[in-house]
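Quick one:
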Amino acid sequence: MRIGIHLELAFFADAEGITTDDAVVLFALELASRVDEVALFGRLTPGSSRGPYPITGDNVRYVELPHYDTLTELRSVSRAIRRSCTAFSRELDRLDAVWLFLPSPLAMIFAVVAKRRGVPVIFGQRQDTPQYIANRLPSRRWAWAIPLAHGLDRVQRRLARRIPTTVVGRELADKFGADRNPVLEMGVSLVRRADLAPLDVALDKSWDGELRLLSVGRLEQEKNSTLLADIVAQLRAADPRWTLDVAGVGPLMAPLRERARELGVEQAVRLRGYVPNGEPLQDLYRNANAFLHVSLTEGLPQVLFEAHAAGLPIVATDVGGVSDALSGGRTGLLVAPRDGAAAVQALEHLRDDSALRRELIEAGLHSVRSQTMEVQLDRVAAFMREHVPEGGGAPAPRRRPRPAARRSRGANVLMYHDVAAGPGEDPGGFEGPGAERYQIDLARFEDHLDRIEASGAEVGVLSESANGPAVAITFDDGGNSALRIAAALERRGWRGHFFVTTSRVGTPRFVDLGAVRELARRGHVVGSHSHTHPDAIGALPAPRILEEWERSRDALSDALGKAPTFASVPGGALSPAVIRAAASAGYRVLMTSNPSSRIQRYGDLSLVGRYAIRNTTPAGRVAGFARGNPAACAPQWLAWQAKSAAKRLSPGLYRIAAGASSARSGA
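Output:
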């Protein structure tokens, strides 16, 4: 079995080869002893540099992805996505399955690419996505990302119903439905059997002299690192024998040093910097009396396995998978997060109670024997063999109840709005920041059409059964640029779909009745975009939704001499009530903002997804949409899924977030 792994790591290159600075890669490298090949996907850091962990092994290879520093650099990430998808796609013929770790957005996009190529996907989840993102936001200006994180989390849990998923810790296993879904609860342990300390050595450690605490991990907000100095200061106020070694680097390294200085314990808090996994780190564990962990959010921390293996009693905050790692408190003392006084009390209890220390050390060493790297890798390899068919390829589908909607492959439909005659010219249609992002000038529009034509795709209009050419082009709102748009299409022998907000017909910036009739006379399809274009049609009472569709249909019937059968959802606010009302009003095709070429059929009504074109969308990406290229389509699909889930989770909070996001982008 040949496995591709994406862990969202940065890699480095120099004359000696490829390396990384994240020890979790050791787990992935060791998996190579249980499969035929491991391909590691990761972004390559520019320049010549080196990390402590070399990528080695006869059946291990590295696949370079474009570089970006962090996921918060949205422009850098967006530029890297397409080239990343290309590099990933090139490797799929050489792989039997891919193991993609969330919450990286690239993992979701890669999953779409792999699925379309028939390559089995296994997801990996190491952290609770909303907590992980909330605790890593660079400032309050990023608060808009929190509802999207909840939406992404909903998507991930839904996908776990049918895509095999490995999760770290019992809390995530429960959340992802391990009792009913193809989910493996695991730990990412770097402790080997040979690393376990002899019980007698661990029990013989003296607590009569210096009392050395050890903390290992990145020094950052989610780890609550500055609290360490407060704990040491409180301990030393009663017993000056306490000291602390801190192994790790990060943005809170300087604040931790400053906090220790303010409290007068700078000599007792020794910042060791980055200590690579191996003998130097094991020396710190061997020389410590106890392990202290004060994180605010966690998966299943590897450092707790390491502390157990070294025979250290542990005091840790009860967050994420920590309780699971400490067997609910049987192999370590749990305290509330941010409660320094509780941590001090627990450590003093350890100092004063040798029987408690012995109990925790014995239980910890016994527990970690079932959590070694060898044990965890055997479980992961068995899980992969269970869910990846012999020789790779798409696994046999699981039996599931037939959904209410029937799906079939359809056209790649592009969603435009208004087109201005030139830069700075009035494009017509609705006004305001939300509308402006979809308004483009004629030169850019012509460039888009040229690229679509060059792709060789067949362009035309859909039938009432949603069948037709490979590509359809639609225009929402009914702005007065419609005839200008129609002429550009007709020069190429194409026709399009024009969706009109009927209450605006004949008003400034919108088409009049003559233009509506002219579009239909020239072979274009005219349909409804509702009567008044409500901001959130899906939130209206059912009778009001039906009224929107019926009044619009009646108005177009009077104008065209026949009832329209096509409609598009205003604002992308699709809901079951919107679908039911459109069907009741007699429409046969309802176009949505869901970026997908799949057609869903609800009785006689076909739901058709579309790829939204903004004024910033490059012509090459538009051509990619037209071809159904996964590298072009997947990012928009992923964003849509996250936004849709966020809307369902908290519509009000989502609208606030969307407004903040638009303000940031200047949209």
